[in-house]
Amino acid sequence: MNGLRMMKKLCSKYFLRELFLVATLTLTVIFTNIIAEPLDTYLDDRAEIRRVLPLVRDGTLHFTPSVFLSWSAVTDGDYLNDVHETLKRQDGVEAVLELFTTGGAFCKRDGKTVNFDLFALYSQDFASYCPPWPGAGSEIGGHDGRLPVMVSRMAAERFPVGSEFDLGMYITVSVDHETGIVEEETLSFPCVVAGVLEDGRALPWAGSSHQVLDGMGYVSRYFQKTMLLSAVYDPEFIGDVRWDYSAFVVPKKDADVENLKKSLAEKLGTWGEVCTLTEIEHSSLENTLSKNLPEQLKFILLAPVTLFGYGAYLFLSIRRRERQLAVFYISGMTRGRIFTLNMLVNVLIYVLSAALGWFLTPLVAKSFVHVEDYGGAGALGVICSGTLFLTALGMSTAAGYIQNRNVAAITLYHRGD
Among 48, 96, 105, 149, which is disulfide-ready with 231 (CB 3.0 to 4.6 Å)? Predict the structure, then answer.
């Protein structure tokens, strides 16, 4: 109880200065968490993708098509089987992991047409090397004459496990280049919902970019908010598939990855580029940093402003408390006791500021900064805020030590007594 009384006396009258300090440090925590959010998101997404991608990142290649090839496939309907055939025939290639995606999937439900935002079909090789969900690829056969499919959480609200329906897709057959008329046919096959895709588990994904992590995987927080349906290719239900150009290329164990990369670049020419999965991670990191460079500079400026501002507070606190501490010392309080109480005051300020900062960050991010999908501070935000607080705590420790060493006023009061 005496310690609490002493701590109260150590603080400013009516705690006004301490309240101002708590508000300042709370804003620092909020600002730090928001600034660190893009890089935190990158680190979380990369960790989620790595957990489900059992491929050697330095030893697996990723092919992404050129803009011209992608545009030709979409607008003209031209599809070059030679692209994947070239990948498969190259010496040193063990397998090409293919994926087919379309947003044109639909089905009939209660007399209405339900559209799926995305339908993902994995080749059997893809599922055997890199299962999109536990057990995928181990059993290719259908279930009671229906193709087993997995759905996202949102899709499961409409189609719970065990639901049966016929899935339809529009497939481009040909394009008349003179008239621009696109000839399509509808592919339909029976499906049964076998399960729901897990939260926190990304889908392995051969995306169409080397600049973002989507080239390697599809993070769960994105597809769980959409009507997504996914399956493993079964020729008994689905005929010939025009696989997406983007694909993973798995080299043989004894292959030289760098030489294979150069050889493929020469063979593919203007069709596209190949790179390792590690290079995708590096490019994505560079892209994240370059996009958020202004925010990073703000944090660099924020850190010294916070530290020097807190340093100024400590300096004024030392001058204000000299006589007060002298009275405590003459009354019989030891220097260690004074130092401990001083530290407890600062620790309480930090704990209160951190708690308020963490609680208010999502509200501030969504209401004032308009970061609608902000989910909370990650590891990087904790590290940055913790570093600032530990530095400030070190400064307060040094200030407390100075207060104990400053015995001029104490000696004066002791002689007067």
Answer: 149
